[in-house]
Write a structure and sequence with these properties.
Aspartate Aminotransferase, domain 1; Aspartate Aminotransferase, domain 2; globular; about 15% strand; three-stranded mixed β-sheet; 13 strands; alpha/beta; about 400 residues; 2 domains; about 45% helix
Length: about 400
């Protein structure tokens, strides 16, 4: 092995440790849920995206099992070569109806949906205008494009600052196409994009809008249809990204929009063109998850009941949840060292809540990101709150 590379890697990892930025995944030893076995320990899990509990839902599991018997465990090819099965088409048709759009194209992940769609719909003659707190997958998709996009050139607006967005649009009049891209729900703060204002500005200045609904899918809108549904903006958002790995409980991402958009991405969306199709059991499980979301309101109701309860409990105890409006509930610590110390102490208390530090968030904005879901009980939330209070007292910081 090359010594220069290995020495460099060792040095960089050591630097991460010194800066309290080193991350090591814990091992989940059973199904995702409100209380889980992780690294041999029973803990309350406040770091799962399994918002509705569908990863363990009996109907979803049964659909996957039955699909294995019918279809086998793999698609066998990239979709355009011969890996598209009728169950994949059925999933896309169901998602299009769910989102009330003309067409949907499914990718292997939300990250690949962004990196496949964004570079395909803009050229060197275009500009991308984005919110400064957009998720990493948006940022990477933008960087892969040939469009103008850099913050140094004035194409990144302050978080949810509509005056700055309008200024960007005014300055962008000379570009062939103007793309505005935003998260629907911001993944580290839990707040919601002002989508009606964004859409109104786009229509005023002849721009088009792409919204990443990774954390809005299954959480906001009718039956969890996302932010366009939440704000009743059907037909006014050009491109919607959704994930299939969070509230829907399985894996994947998709782009929802017009039929020409789908046709173009089939031909020019590189992750679609060069990735093997989902195993058919994934598509079947997702169809079953959609059935649950559309016909059983209880999981979504429970999610929001727990969300409101958790936020109220934290507020009463004096914690700063940073204006979160959704189940994503950050608890501000500020200092990276304090946040990571809190994560370790909470683990000892039987609570798994992840410290989010730089570079995921800005330096000095470290937090514990908590995410109540439909599977948490009142006992889970009460026990977690008491653990947070004890940890806050131990580390001696005001949060």
């Amino acid at each position: 092995m090359n010594d220069t590379l290995q020495n460099w890697l060792t040095q960089q990892i050591g630097q991460l440790h010194e800066e309290h930025l080193y991350k090591k995944p814990r091992i989940l030893e059973g199904p995702a849920g409100g209380r889980v076995m992780m690294d041999g320990k029973s803990v309350i899990n406040l770091s799962s995206n399994n918002y509705l509990g569908l990863a363990n839902h009996p109907k979803v599991k049964q659909a996957a099992l039955e699909s294995i018997e019918k279809w086998g465990v793999g698609a066998g090819a990239v979709r355009w070569i011969g890996g598209t099965m009728s169950v994949h088409d059925e999933l896309e048709e169901r998602l299009a109806k769910f989102k009330k759009v003309d067409a949907v194209l499914v990718f292997t992940g939300g990250f690949t949906a962004n990196s496949g769609c964004i570079p395909a719909v803009v050229t060197k003659d275009d500009v991308i205008i984005s919110d400064e707190l957009n998720h990493a997958s948006i940022i990477d998709g933008v960087r892969l494009s040939a469009a103008s996009y850099k913050k140094s050139e004035g194409w990144v607006y302050e978080h949810k600052n509509m005056d700055m967005l309008e200024d960007c649009l005014k300055r962008a009049s000379g570009f062939a196409k103007r793309m505005i891209i935003t998260d629907g729900v911001f993944s580290m703060d839990g707040d919601i994009a002002p989508l009606p204002e964004i859409v109104a500005l786009a229509e005023k200045y002849d721009a088009f809008v792409m919204v990443d609904d990774a954390h809005a899918s299954g959480v906001l809108g009718k039956n969890g249809a996302g932010t366009a549904s939440h704000f009743d903006l059907y037909g006014r958002v050009d491109i919607q990204l959704g994930t299939l790995s969070k509230a829907l409980g399985v894996i994947g991402g998709y782009i929802a929009g017009s039929k020409p958009l789908k046709e173009w991405l089939i031909n020019r969306g590189r992750p679609y063109l060069f990735s093997t199709a989902h195993p058919p059991m994934v598509a079947a499980a997702l169809i079953a998850a959609l059935d649950v979301m559309e016909n059983d309101p209880e999981p979504m109701q429970k999610l929001w009941d727990n969300t409101r309860k958790w936020k109220a409990m934290l507020a009463d105890a004096g914690f700063d949840t940073m204006g979160s409006e959704t189940p994503i509930t950050p608890i501000l610590f500020g200092d990276e060292k304090a946040a990571q110390a809190a994560e370790k102490l909470l683990w000892e208390e039987g609570v798994y809540a992840l410290a989010i530090v730089y570079p995921t968030v800005a330096k000095g904005k470290a937090r514990l990101r908590t995410m109540p879901n439909a599977t948490h009980t009142d006992e889970d939330l009460n026990d977690a709150l008491q653990a947070f209070i004890r940890v806050r007292d131990k580390i001696g910081v005001s949060v």
